[in-house]
Amino acid sequence: MISSMMYDSLAPELITARFRARRLIHTYNAHFPPDATPASLTADRAAILSEIFGKVGANPFVEPPLRVDYGCNVSIGKDFYANFGLVILDCGIVRIGERVMFGPGVAIFTATHKVGVQSRREGREYAVGVDIGDDCWVGGNVTIMPGVRIGECMRAYWDSCVWGRNLDRDVVVNLKGIWALTLMRCREGVYYWGGECGY
Fold it and tell me: Domains of the chain (ranges plus CATH)?
């Protein structure tokens, strides 16, 4: 599955792995003890995330609801933040760097299918991993497609679909069209689009 080769998504061991993930996700999304405090709830959720994800850095904060296929193929760096409604279809490896921020409704897809119909009829698919560098910001309702690698400090703008490899610039697609913004770095480390630095 994580080798990008075709596999049977209905294989019994994969069904079992997805079932395990659903159980953990249900626990995560429903966990809110009556005596919880903000600190205790954050600690509890971090502990559950460490069971769901393959690797979890320090200080994760993921607002429920969270959805994953397997969970074990996801690694997140320290100080990761995701707003409500994160979906990760982690049939392939998903690596998320340090200090990455996600807006609400972000979706990461690694599973995909051949164009021909027969493999879909047979339940066969393949997956291509996603890699998101340190200090990235992914806006609300962004969809990240299989095989994307987003470089450090990049931004994906709200309501967009990101695809391609080795993205060291902001690439955005939405209903209004397609455009690419090449970012340059100021001496202070702030990115800008022209003559003036800005946030």
Answer: 7-192 (2.160.10.10)
Phi and psi (nearest 5°) for 7?
-145, 165
- Catalytic residue from among 23, 55, 113, 114: 113
The greatest distance separating any two alpha carbons of the chain, rounded to the nearest whole angstrom, comes to: 57
- Helix, strand or coil, per DSSP, at residue 93: coil
Instruction: Quote the tokens at residue 126.
Output: 């393949």
pTM score: 0.82
Is 31 part of the annotated catalytic residue set?
Answer: no
In tens, the pLDDT along 33-86 reads 999 999 999 999 999 999 999 999 999 999 999 999 999 999 999 999 999 999
**Dist CA 43 CA 184 (whole Å):** 38
Please identify which residue in the block is written with the tokens 């080769």: 5
